[in-house]
Write a structure and sequence with these properties.
The longest helix is centred in the C-terminal third of the chain and has 14 residues. It is built from two helices and no strands. It is elongated. The chain is mainly α.
Length: 68
């Protein structure tokens, strides 16, 4: 968040040490994500699950198990 006012960022410490892929673009110091725009990790037709942080990994694992 780029703002002249103070900004507080809360991180999920449970994710420290958890590896995940990052593109070169996402690692750039000028990379920004528009607020209000979601990243679709897996598209489906029967249900929508909206989550963030650690629960993204759990949700993707559950979806994988349900496909089997």
């Amino acid at each position: 968040i780029r703002d002249e006012n103070p900004v507080v960022v809360l991180e999920n410490e449970l994710l420290y040490g958890t590896p995940f892929p990052l593109t070169d673009e996402a690692q750039d110091k000028d990379f920004v994500i528009p607020l209000g725009k979601a990243k679709i990790e897996k598209e489906g037709k029967d249900v929508s699950i909206v989550t963030f942080s650690k629960m993204v990994g759990y949700s993707l694992e559950v979806a994988k198990n349900l496909e089997a």
